[in-house]
Amino acid sequence: MKVTTDACIQGAWTPLLPGVERVLDIGAGTGLLSLMLAQRKPDIVIDAIEFDNESSVQARENGIASPWRDRINILEGDVRSYGFSYKYDLIISNPPFFSNSLLGDKEAKNNARHTLSLTYGDLLKAIAGNLSDDGYVSVLLPAVEYDQWKELMVADVWNEIGKLSVSHRPGAAVKRIVGLFSKKDTGTMCSTLTIKGDDNNYTPAFIDLLAPFYLDF
User: Fold this and answer.
1) Contact by Cβ (8 Å): 30, 136
2) How is 17-46 classified by DSSP, letter by letter?
3) N or C: fewer beta carbons within 10 Å in the chain?
4) Domains and CATH numbers, the chain
5) How far is CA 188 from the centre of its chain?
């Protein structure tokens, strides 16, 4: 699974509030989000669950090779039936995006990108069953799918408490949204991020956000 700019934005922007001690990464892929969160906060422990065997093996290798190996636990299994030992303060997920688009010829990529093995309803059930009462969730989705996700969350009495709208260039349509949801209503913190300016260079805001993780700025 490729490292995407969108996922890097989610990993860098998602707030790590003072009470966050245990994090669950659903659909960990190769462990990118878990590694970024572990780098950002030295006192959190992260359980990262991945359904695909090859991805979970690589995520485990990446975790072991990192300075944060003792705080990242890679779990291989199905989040819909996995018996977790804890309730989590934060759940983060870059879930399958697409529900009505053409499939490719690689099953693993289809499962990662399309809602075949994990529907939005499945994801919501997993979040509701494993999040602490005071916890919150961070989800990254394309703009259209995000509207569907938000509708599902609001219907289940969740509150949107944060939202980052991401566009690639000034004046371009919003392509991705990182949303934060909680059962507690704390108001909605709305932000925007443009990746590149008209000069095709990264914007100062993007550089500030990703500088701790990118080596080529």
Assistant:
1) no
2) -TT--EEEEES-TTSHHHHHHHHH-TT-EE
3) C
4) 5-157 (3.40.50.150)
5) 18
